[in-house]
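Notes from the 1:1 (GR / supervisor)

We went over the backlog. Supervisor wanted to see one worked example end to end before approving the batch request, so GR pasted a single chain during the call. The sequence is below; no edits were made to it. Supervisor asked that the structure be written out right there so they could see what the output format looks like.
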Amino acid sequence: MHSHFIQFVDATGARRVGSLDLHGNLATLRATDSIYALAERAISESTTLDALAQEFAGEREVAEVALAGATLLGGADHPVDEARCTLWDLSGGVRCLGDGSGLASPRRPHPATARTETLTAALCGAYLIDGHQQPRRLGFGLALFGGPFSGFAFGPALFPGTEEWLEADGSRLEIAASGVDTSQTHIGLTDNAAIAESEGRLFRQPQCRRTADLHIAALTAVSLGAARAELASVATRLSHLPLELALTTAAEPEVRTRAL
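Structure output shown during the call:
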């Protein structure tokens, strides 16, 4: 069975990674504190995230109990250098949305200068560039974002890097959005050929294949409309797990350029 991963800060303030099963039970993983570090180990040992999750899994607990007092983080991030993580929208070309400083925690969003921009819900892939400058897909997750550099909520769950669950869950994700004016009710799931085409557009660019860089890219997306509330959110179910994301909007900061 493939693992579904989450990242969180526990009640003591330590970063942790958990493996979540379809019944809502969570096993905290030993020997790692981020999906990024787990992926680096999987690459160096020529194994998979799922195999390492089985090797390092602690005792399983009901997720609500295991996460008491914890703060959920995004489905993937660069734990050391935000500038080594780049956010992309590939749903209609190749559009850069900023670096990892724009990532918002799924249940603890940070202010974003979205103004009245259109919010987008998307299915994303997360990728780590290996030592041979080749992209390695860590998995898929749900995202909610505004315009470029305006905040990007990703997660909370990171799903397997293979496309098997896409086929198992049908051709679309049913969604429920609040805080936006929208009539959209689903995100269409792209097929395997379309995934490969989108990934190819991004990673054929040499600057996107720098070893140890992390990329999070929207593969298929739906526009939800302009935010009409301070807090916009989207929820859906994927592989029987609820996914909930929220993104705050805030006034654009005042910036003045002055000559020296």
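Supervisor's comment: The longest helix spans residues 192-203.
Batch request approved.
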